[in-house]
Model the fold of this input.
Amino acid sequence: MNVSTADCCAEPGQKLLSVEAGLTRILDAVPVLARTEQLHLRAALDRVLAETVTAQYDVPSFANSAMDGYAVRSADCNTQGEMQLQVVGTSFAGAPFNGRVERGQCLRIMTGAVMPDGADAVLMQEHVHRKEDQISFSTGSVSAGLNVRYAGEDTRSGDTVLEPGVRLGPAELGLLASVGVAEVRVTQRLRVAFFSTGDELCSVGVPLEKGQIYDSNRYALYGMLSRAGVEFFDLGVIADQRDSVRDAFRQAGNMADLVITSGGVSVGEADYVTETLEELGQIDFWRMAMKPGKPLAFGRIGNAAFFGLPGNPVSAMVTFYLFALPAIRKMQGQTAHDALLFEARCETTFKKAAGRAEFQRGILKREADGSWSVGTTGVQGSHVLSSMAKANCLIRLPAENAGVEAGQMVTVQPFLDFDY
Ligand code: AMP
Ligand code: MG
Done:
């Protein structure tokens, strides 16, 4: 991993790094990990595929009925007026009929049952009148192939079913099962160690003393890392002491592919963090042209990549989603996907200074006329975690933008985009 310190930017007054440039540097610097494993389909949910899967069979593997009804010879049905055919048997899903449908005959057939020899169309049972072993119906529109699902219509034997880099969701698991795949090769879970820094932090379950706050970042991080499908190690709260900080970083760097901390990355504050990271790895302290989340540290500790997220809870979450999550996806071998962005009418006026991108917490909703609108969740301080909990999206105000008036269109990114 090569982290350049070129034009950036720990000293106050130095240039800010744009969100796009920061992300590009991060993605250029982190490696794709090569470890893979073979898993049963169920265990592979939310993993990233590490092989090309090709179909060994046609899907469906035989022509079958798309309806409950009667399999007929379309050629028998092209005279005008009322027709009669004799029912010669039944084809059930899983229990085919072994004979042949001859002229003047038909077969009772269920959805998914094998099409019998001789027949080439299926009449819906609702369009047919049955009396004993005779059916009658009005002809006119029975073409060959009506209500028939042909072999290979979904997937053909030899077709590529899924490519490496796909994250396996419910549909992908179903698709793999449909072509008879019981096991797949996936990338191993990324190992991520994380801890919080700060003497003011208290873990939940213990009463607060004066001046203390609960460590919320580790819980938000736990949630975000779980959704990202990684294997994680929660190393707790580390006191602002030289030895503790050094031990924690050393342990984290030895056990993980990625180390994430929160707090202690503001300029001038993080003496032990800076000192330790310079000793054990390579680190840049960046001032990002964004709000929330201006301070961000990135680099490596030993062989692990490292993110030092800001301590403020909203900043920690936003910087995780914008920078750490794309890095995790790349390291786990996931193919990059375009951000899920919507244009919505903004219900709130936002004033901002040009020069820093802003990520406001918003509530996106669909109006009665079908258009999308988005409003603020209220107070937007980077310490106001309730603004994240109320929100379902980020409102993305670009750096060059000097704010928006209510009624103007803005770009929003649903939180859903961060869940896969
Ligand atoms: P820092 O980045 O360490 O200067 O912290 C910035 C702000 O975030 C301070 O108000 C900290 O108390 C707060 N903070 C830091 N770490 C956490 C955490 N793990 N949970 C909640 N708040 C935190
Ligand atoms: Mg701190």
